[in-house]
Amino acid sequence: MTLRAVVTGVGHYLPERIVPNSEFESKIDTSDEWIRTRSGIERRHFAADGETTSQLATHAAQAALNDAGLSADDIDAIIVATSTADLTFPSAATMVQAQLGMTKGFAFDVQAVCAGFVYALANANALIVSGQAKRALVIGAETFSRIMDWEDRTTSVLFGDGAGALILEAQDGSGAKSDRGILATDLNSDGRFKDILYVDGGVSQRSTGYLRMQGKEVFRHAVEKLAQTAITSMDKAGITADEVDWIVPHQANIRIIKGTAKKMDIPMSRVVVTVQDHGNTSAASIPLALSVGKAEGKIKEGDIVVTEAIGGGLAWGSVVLRW
Ligand code: UT7
Fold first, then answer.
1. Residue 39 C-alpha to ligand 1 middle, in angstroms?
2. Residue 293 is inside which H or E element, if any?
3. What number of other Cβ atoms are within 10 A of residue 239's Cβ?
4. 153 lines ligand 1 (CB under 6 A)
5. How far is CA 317 from the centre of its chain?
6. Apex CA 297: angle with CA 118 and CA 158, to 5°?
7. Burial label, 276 (beta-carbon count in 10 A; 0-12, 13-18, 19+)
8. Does the pLDDT at position 1 exceed 90?
9. Which of 17, 64, 304, 321 has its CA 20 to 30 A from that of 154?
10. pLDDT digits (tens, 9 = 90+) for 125-140
11. pLDDT at 173 over 90
12. Are the C-beta atoms of 175 and 2 separated by less than 8 Å?
């Protein structure tokens, strides 16, 4: 018998305010056409003044609990993947715990920027298969609008705010790839690439800072490393490209998404794409896309889903699961 971490609920939350590309045209030297053709983004959501990452996360968590037919009392671990927590400490995860009215279990944040949700899934899987948690709430939540330099046209048009959440539950499996649940994970980082994507401030510098990115450089690494990590975890799971029902990639740029799918030999008809509506929501992008993919009737029980992401660090990774 093998313990598996099986998805039993999914949900998401997007802040009310939708910002179309055209809103940037009057503020900086850009155009709807440039943003669409270079990134695939058409609009994004921005949190309201005072609306925080843990609040977005809590809404998404509640939606996932409802989807699973569970209450917060049924959860024993919360992991929030974020780089934009409300406070330096405590973690956004403990704030979500309090907002859900939970007084037991444990909660912590994972910080691996845009790869954060994949890292959080791998951590939750490890806790579940080792018997340390039975039901985990795994959330990706971000307010990247708070770290945008609005004068910088090369970054400010690309990011958005939002949150998505999954419930993972321990279930007995056979150890074969026919099991539901997480079948394989692959995590990587290489800190030598810090300067191509980082925030130029932080606690030990007594500042918040703004996101800085050498987009072309990140792009170059992205397609290569995403395809490589996805293929690595598919190999670990014994899954071939033909068996993949859905790639649910990090949603940074439609050209990266297409390039990666092509390298993996998987047609775009089997890729969930939300970048046009959400922009790049960093650690929130994969759970948002999973939730939208399920709501649209694409992702169904039994489907093989491959998620892959890359971001600041560089940090990248992938997870193969049977929904
Ligand atoms: O989620 C974390 C990982 N992040 C990513 O995966 C992002 C990866 N990178 C990208 O998605 C793309 O590199 C970008 C969308 C950021 C940029 O696309 P690109 O095709 O690599 O464009 P570029 O940076 O080479 O810029 C082309 C031109 C430049 O002008 P010159 O030097 O050719 O005259 C830029 O100054 O486009 C200019 N440009 C803009 N023009 C209008 C840059 N930003 C804008 C803008 N509006 N917003």
1. 8
2. helix 285-295
3. 19
4. yes
5. 11
6. 50
7. middle
8. no
9. 17
10. 999 999 999 999 999 9
11. yes
12. yes
Rounded CA gap, 282 and 285, in Å?
Answer: 6
Measured from the CB, is residue 211 less than 6 Å from ligand 1? no
CA 252 to ligand 1 center in whole angstroms: 12
Q: What are 195-204's pLDDT values in tens digits?
A: 999 999 999 9
Domains and CATH numbers, the chain: 2-173 (3.40.47.10), 181-322 (3.40.47.10)
What is the chain's mean pLDDT, rounded? 98
Instruction: Check if the beta carbon of residue 60 is closer than 8 Å to that of residue 163.
Output: yes
6 pLDDT more than 90: yes
Write out pLDDT tens, residues 274-292.
999 999 999 999 999 999 9
Residues β-bridged to residue 159 = 280
257 Cβ inside 6 Å of ligand 1 = no
Give the residue carrying structure tokens 């440039």: 34
Q: Which residues, listed in sequence order, are joined to residue 46 by a DSSP beta bridge?
A: 17
**Residues annotated as part of the active site:** 114, 250, 280
DSSP 19-62: EETHHHHTTSS--HHHHHHHH---EEEEPPTT--HHHHHHHHHH
Contact (CB, 8 A) for 145 and 56: no
Could you say which DSSP state residue 148 is in?
A: -
Please indicate whether residue 38, judged by its CB atom, sits closer than 6 Å to ligand 1. Answer: yes
Using the mean position of ligand 1's atoms as its centre, give its distance from the Cα of residue 80 in Å: 29
- 208-227, pLDDT tens digit by residue? 999 999 999 999 999 999 99
What is the pTM for the complete model shown? Answer: 0.97
